[in-house]
Amino acid sequence: MTEALAVWAPPPRLTVSEWADRFRVLSAEASAEPGRWRTDRAEYQRGIMDAVSDPDVETVVVMKSAQIGWTEILNNVVGYHIHQDPAPLLVVQPTVEMGESWSKDRLAPMLRDSPALRGRVADPRSRDGANTLLHKMFPGGHLTIAGANSPASLASRPIRVVLFDEVDRYPASAGTEGDPITLGRKRTATFWNRKVLMGSTPTIAGVSRIEAAWEQSDRRRYWVPCPHCGERQTLRWAQVQWADGRPETARYHCAHCGAGWSDAERWAAVRRGEWRAEAPFAGTAGFHISELCSPWRRLAETVADFLAAKDRPETFKAWVNTALGETWQERGEAPDWARLLERREAGMERGVVPAGVSVLTAGVDVQGDRIEVAVWGWGPGFESWLVETDVFPGSPASSEPWDALAAMLARDWECAGGETMRIAKVGVDTGGTATSAVYAHLRRSRDPRIMPLKGVEGWARAQPVSGPTHVDVTEGGRKLRRGLRLWTVAVSVYKADLYRRLWLSRGEDGSIPRGWVHLPEWMEPELVRQLVAEQLVTVKDRRGFARQEWRKLRDRNEQLDMAVYARAALALLGADRGGDAFWRRLAEREEAQRPVPPEAVAPATAVSPPPAAAPVDGIVFRPRGGAVAAW
Question: Domain Terminase large subunit GpA endonuclease: where (predicted)?
Fold first, then answer.
């Protein structure tokens, strides 16, 4: 009789970490260390997981680096509630597609390989519709998987437990419904025992969602004892030392006694660590953890990544976010225009493409009485040259300025080496007072190089240029067929990128750093002022949360806007997505198309035409010299 009752007894109440140690099995395809879960493998995970099962904690915030096991923490919380504390669950990924990937690649293997979970979720092959890719039913509850970009998936059901993953990659708004985190939290309003788990790698100081949430928490940091003197401390990057150019010599040095720790000593110290709060607890437990605590990363690897990134601003920022779990502080003050004026470069002839340029893009700004354009040349590492800037007077509702712009875009641009080049992509602002007229003229232009743009505030670093979306185009009250494709640009990303590159200084030997901005001597002082006409400031909203926004220092900022549009056009060519490989492909294509000097050809050998240009990310560029390539 006792044995029979034991079979029907409810499972014992466990914390999330106790449940994981007893019931969780890591799958071979989803983990580098498959088999039985062990929380003591990364002891800092225990405090994070157990805060979820603490009745006094309503919200758990984790500001983290990569490589600390965050996804498995998320999986353990889901598994715990399916098996131990059934409830309606909602997992929110940055996009619906990422939600589908998590469901297939992470959730499904856990449900299959952990015996305590096997069979609790409805069979996906059943015909009752209880188990789909984004919705799972289990006894006592259900699991919904949503994308932060989908308002419908965030507003469908009452939820007791919400898990927000990588919140700094969320869009500013879920469609037109507003902040996705606010929408997700609203689903928990009817539950007295609601739980919210929020985790992310941070991004930019003053903009990061996870930083703002962590600042409102009790701000817990992980303290570990020194293996030599026993004094506890948090692991900080400033205490890492190594011999010049030799990351394999890296050691962490105690902040108290100065002793160097080996990796084994550091990992042993982490196993004996503890969480300590810096602020009073008021229902929100906040955790900050960096890669320095990870048992899966050797210090030499972290240092090697640092050395590879430190001289490249675009990658160094990512290293700070993903290795240290810290926000990046943008240098938002405007560079001194007078200093930029002094460092203008002689020898750059107006309208002539300098040596080193691999591709040309243009940015177009539309004003009420004129259209302005700036042509920028680009090389590896996003080194850039201002090639030309011009103004075409006239109302954007009339055809005259557009005809003048079309003539300019049709030009063959002379290169310093005597060859020619054409503009590959053009970003055109559509957000002014004459939007309908701009739409109509762009719709009729039929130039596939032209990319209509709408600038928006925000820091969508994962995808600064998004779209396209289709918009209706009207002319004289009549709707034109097939409308227009419109691209959205997170202008803050490219403004900060430009300012960061404008702040760069030459080396002691006069060498230029990666990403240098070449400003020509013919660039008038007013144009230089316009290029740095805004400043990034930190303001607080009505709830007291800090955010960053760009504010004008002077009325005229056309050169800054056009530089941003030209940079967005470069992104549409594939430069951001392709990285260094993009520039290598351009260089290889250019070399393949370079005309063969007559003296290099044997007299009896017929000269073959240069090989056809291969598309780079779908775009075929005009070669320097030779026939005009198709656009």
Answer: 284-576
Give per-residue pLDDT as tens, 36-78.
Answer: 999 999 999 999 999 999 999 999 999 999 989 999 999 999 9
- Alpha-carbon Rg for the chain, nearest whole angstrom, is 29
- Output the six-digit token pair for 613: 């240009």
Q: Which domain CATH number covers 315? A: 3.40.50.300
178 sits in the region (left: phi over 0; alpha: psi -120 to 50; else beta) called left
Q: Could you tell me which of 569, 583, 586 has the C-alpha nearest to residue 381?
A: 583
- Per-residue model confidence as pLDDT tens digits over 135-181: 899 999 999 999 988 877 777 679 999 999 999 888 877 766 778 88
Residue type, 235: L
DSSP letters spanning 269-306:
HHHT-EEEESS--SSEEEEEE-GGG-TT--HHHHHHHH
Please compute, for residue 366, the number of CA atoms within 13 A of its CA located in the half-sphere on the CB side: 26
| 606 domain-assigned | no
597: DSSP letter: P
Helices and strands in the chain, H and E counts: 20, 27
Contact (Cβ atoms closer than 8 angstroms) between residue 575 and residue 378: yes
DSSP, collapsed to helix, strand or coil, labels residue 346 as coil
**In the chain, how many domains are there?**
2
Q: What is the pTM of this model?
A: 0.66
